From TrEMBL:
Involved in the regulation of the intracellular balance of NAD and NADP, and is a key enzyme in the biosynthesis of NADP. Catalyzes specifically the phosphorylation on 2'-hydroxyl of the adenosine moiety of NAD to yield NADP. NAD(+) binds at D77, G78, K82, N150, D151, D180, T191, A192, Y193, S194, L195, S196, A215. It comes from the Bacteria. GO terms for molecular function: ATP binding; metal ion binding; NAD binding; NAD+ kinase activity. Its cofactor is a divalent metal cation. The keyword Phosphoprotein does not apply. Gene3D superfamilies: Probable inorganic polyphosphate/atp-NAD kinase, domain 1 (3.40.50.10330), Probable inorganic polyphosphate/atp-NAD kinase, domain 2 (2.60.200.30). This is NAD kinase. One of its GO terms (biological process) is NADP+ biosynthetic process. Its main location: cytoplasm. Belongs to the NAD kinase family. The active site is at D77.
Length: 296
């Protein structure tokens, strides 16, 4: 199959610039294939300072100012989520190279990067689409990106008392959560924060969201799953008169009285997938699913 000339936008964390030699080898491999390489500005400066040499790239970009064939995330899942938030509705496929720890989203280990890039240049890759949710705060504009690939968490601030969250689904009253917070998760995010607070693991492409309270006052309130075509409305009360809304970990303070709307976004995140990768094998590998602890 004829190799195509492609362009790549590369995201990475400043801390991963410490692995600059391996990263520079990867950039060199892209250059050998005559690819146009664009580095995110912060990552470019960190890498340049570490290498102390000129990088062979086509340019540097800031924010969402890029238009390429593929995005590469060099880091852990946090870096991947940052890249996904910048890609937004652009629908550019993302290659997640795992230089972090667990790596559910960044699923390509560095030693496999050349192999998957070969497939990309040959036009022979699998791309998996993942649902995204969107947060809207009625009457108060959000400062950050409103789209979440993993989850949206409504949380109390610092040492404040628990908050009250009145939840309505498609106009029908569900319950009022008295808790430290509430995590609304996509299937992708079900193995992240949601799992740590007792939420269910959801297979990708299940077309559902989960709602899981954080440290609820009542043991009668359990996680619930709903159709991802639902619209969730939340009204929050707090003794401190404000609370936090975290969209894929990007937190901002909102005032009491703001009505929140959460729904499925009109776009999806497209992830380049290793052909031999399957969700259940990832569970067994990453979470030691079904492993006998007596053997360790």
């Amino acid at each position: 199959m004829t190799e195509r000339k492609l362009s790549f936008a590369v995201f990475g964390s400043a801390s991963k610039a410490l692995e600059s030699i391996r990263i520079n080898e990867m950039l060199g491999y892209l250059a050998q294939h005559e690819a146009d390489i664009y580095l995110e500005q912060g990552f470019f400066h960190a890498l340049e300072n570490k290498l102390q040499e000129d990088l062979k790239i086509a340019g540097v970009f800031e924010g969402v100012n890029f238009d390429v064939d593929y995005v590469i995330s060099l880091g852990g899942d946090g870096t991947f989520l940052k890249a996904a938030s910048k890609v937004g509705p652009k629908q550019i496929p993302i290659i997640g190279v795992n230089m972090g720890r667990l790596g559910f989203l960044a699923n390509v280990v560095p030693d496999e990067a050349r192999s998957i890039l070969d497939d990309v240049f040959a036009g022979d890759v699998e791309i998996e689409e993942r649902a995204v949710m969107q947060l809207e705060a009625l009457g108060e504009p959000l400062e950050g990106c409103p789209y979440a690939l993993n989850d949206i968490a409504i949380l109390k601030r610092d040492n404040a008392a628990m908050i009250s969250i009145k939840a309505t689904v498609n106009g029908e009253y569900l319950t009022t959560y008295l808790a430290d917070g509430l995590v609304i998760s996509t299937p992708t995010g079900s193995t992240a924060y949601s799992l740590s607070v007792g939420g269910p693991i959801i297979v990708p492409q299940s077309d559902i969201f989960s709602m899981t309270p954080v440290a609820p006052h009542s043991l009668n309130i359990r996680p619930i799953v709903i159709s991802d075509n639902s619209e969730i409305t939340l009204e929050v009360e707090s003794r401190s008169h404000n609370f936090l809304a975290a969209v894929d970990g990007r937190s901002e303070k909102l005032r009491e009285g703001v009505t929140l709307k959460i729904r499925k976004a009109s776009h999806k995140v497209r992830i380049v997938k290793r052909k031999e990768q399957h969700f259940f094998s990832t569970l067994r590998e990453k979470l030691m699913w079904g492993a006998d602890a007596r053997k360790f």
